User: What shape does this take?
Amino acid sequence: MNAAVRALALVKNSNQMRIIAAETTNEAVAGSGACDSAAAKEIFENYGSSPRKYRNGLGLAVPAADQIKSLRRSVRYILAIEHVRDKARQLNLADEQKAQLREREHTESAAAESALLKLYAEVWLPKVTTDGIVIDVAAAGGRPLSVTLDEKKHARIHDRVMELLVDVQRRVFSTTTPNKIVELFTLGEGSPPALGIKTADVVDGFYSFLGFPRLIGSVVLKAAIAKGIHDKFFGYYSGSTPTLGDDGKYQVPVARVRFDTTVAEDEIDLESGFLMMPQAIPVAAPPPEVTQPPETPKKPEETKRDEPPPPVNPQTVDLSFSADRNQLFSAWNAIANLADLAGKVNVTVHAESAEGFDKGKLQNGVLEPLRESDLIE
Assistant: This one.
């Protein structure tokens, strides 16, 4: 490759926007030629000897040629100072000379960090056209980036590059919408229509297909899916991939499908989750009708003789019911009112799960809060 390009991964998670710094060799460089376009396209298209899969989550931070010379000079001075300091006893350096070395090291370190701040002001992104993959250039231009140094006085290179892509040039996005997921993956369309998709395929699609919105991280998809569940764009199910029945409904327990409800983002599993269109969500069977035998009317005198009238103020109240999460919130206020009337109520909870309860979630989300409230031992 011309001006040999070496890939330095600053973010390794494939579910995040991955920025790669393009580093030149000692060859003379000028302008954007510091990173050869042919070498950049090679990185965009291939991962070693195999085609690259996650091309839509990749960018090349290209070094500015005018900063390389000053950066290289400062780094060489720093290395030379460290070499001399390591041999201070052999060279019989005086305290004044050691102080001069420390002062020069601080000066060159500041110069190096300053050069690093200005080094990457341009990012190359892959873009697909009729001619194949081309380079889409995002440059800061005359607008200065606000991100500078961290608390240790080190240049925040990756943060500056992401500021360029997210805030200045808007090539990478921190949000997306549920209807965008439905549109991009043509859910509900086709013959037969696509009525569902695995969340893992949604992640792969956003990070693989050039032309899809580039996302800053997988947390963006979790937020979009949670909003889509609440706004009834699709239902969500976590588990093995469900089968579509002859009635056009997915064969899963109705109670395990989240739809038209609030779901926390950390409850969305991007590996085992499944999205299904509203028309494919299974419907709960109506409860069987119970036929009551006709009652034999009683004479007024028999009622007075055989059945004493109920007390005006009962002394005990016994209730039993089954409830889901939302119904439980509604019932809890009624139970609280009963506790106000009685002073204290006894609560017995029974829950069953055909697949068993997750021990971690049961411990952290149920048992520990009850122990902290001194309700159980």
